[in-house]
Amino acid sequence: MFSTLLIAFASATLALAHGGVTSYTIAGTNYTGWSPYNSASDQTSIERPYSSFNPILDAADPTIHCNDAGTAGPHQLTAEVKAGSKITAYWSQWTHKEGPVTVYMASCGSSCSSVNSASVSWFKIAETGLVSGTLGNGVWGNTGVFDTLKYDAVIPAALADGEYLIRHELLALHQANTPQFYPECAQLKITGGGGKTPSGSYLAKLPGAYKMSDPGVTVDIYSTAAQTQTNYTVPGPAVWTGA
Ligand SMILES: *[C@@H]1O[C@H](CO)[C@@H](O)[C@H](O)[C@H]1NC(C)=O
Ligand SMILES: *[C@@H]1O[C@H](CO)[C@@H](O)[C@H](O)[C@H]1NC(C)=O
Ligand SMILES: [Cu+2]
After folding, report:
1. DSSP state of 142
2. Which ligand approaches the C-alpha of residue 32 most closely?
3. Does the C-beta of 223 come closer than 6 Å to ligand 1?
4. What pLDDT was estimated at residue 3?
5. Are 135 and 195 in contact (CB under 8 A)?
6. Closest residue to atom 2 of ligand 1, CA basis
7. Which pLDDT belongs to residue 4?
8. pLDDT band for position 237 (cuts 50, 70, 90)
9. What is the per-residue pLDDT for 15?
10. Looking at residues 157-185, what average pLDDT do you find?
């Protein structure tokens, strides 16, 4: 009994730190997100299921695409939205100020629900890395999420119609040389788009888009050099705007 309580307390404490996307607003409509600590079978959401608020610690982790095995939920929804719409992701909690925010999309073809997120090709639609200051003492994309618990992006107006996964990732750099990845995905059906798709140099697999040896992935923000260094390279391919 005592040890059961202790375990319950320990996992509640873990859940209190870290974070994950818990809802969205797209073109003014609110969408409930996935709740990793509630029963999966009862949930109806545009967000793909994910397992916990805990970080993924390896860029090559097989779950780094959508923070789980990659399949749709039992009652998976897809949000139908116009290309060019603003999408705001919300986090119910977030505890780290250092590191970049990135948003990726991936085409599923005609339907996402049968598609495993390990199999698709991702392109980046938004990123916020080091906004100002130094690696050691700067304002980051994650600082904004820490302060506001949200991140705004725009679905490229040029994008071709079809079903897509959208993936928000917070990369936390507060532990020296130990990156923490926090990715979550949702399903979108894009309409009213501009018919364009990103070319090969913008596309990457996950895992694969970045490696532990990338300069923006394994970083010691407490090193002497980091206290004066003002450049930071956000991992992954260049942002595709459709322009
Ligand atoms: C949508 O969610 C936002 C953020 O939680 C909230 O401020 C807003 O009132 C909600 N809008 C509606 C129509 O529920
Ligand atoms: C900053 O620039 C230096 C020199 O070009 C490079 O070696 C280093 O990897 C960069 N750091 C980051 C975090 O991008
Ligand atoms: Cu954390």
Report:
1. H
2. 1
3. no
4. 44
5. no
6. 30
7. 44
8. very high
9. 57
10. 98
**Ligand 2 center to 217 CA (angstroms):** 11
Cβ–Cβ < 8 Å for 219, 177: yes
- What percent helix, strand, coil does the chain show, rounded to 5? 15, 35, 55
**Which residue's CA is minimally distant from atom 9 of ligand 2?**
215
* pLDDT for the residue 17: 75
Strands 75-76 and 44-45: parallel
C-alpha triplet 86, 88, 183: angle, nearest 5°: 120
CA of 135 to the centre of ligand 1 (A): 34
The sign of the dihedral angle between the CA atoms of 117, 120, 125, 128 is positive
List the domains of the chain with CATH numbers.
19-227 (2.70.50.70)
Give distance in angstroms: CA of 174 to centre of ligand 3. Answer: 9
Burial of 100-132, coded b for 16+ CB within 10 Å and e otherwise, reads bbbbbbbbbeeebeebebbebbbbbbbbbbbee
pLDDT of 71-102, one tens digit each? 999 999 999 999 999 999 999 999 999 999 99
pLDDT computed for residue 16 by the predictor: 61
Alpha-helical regions (H) of 49-203: 141-148
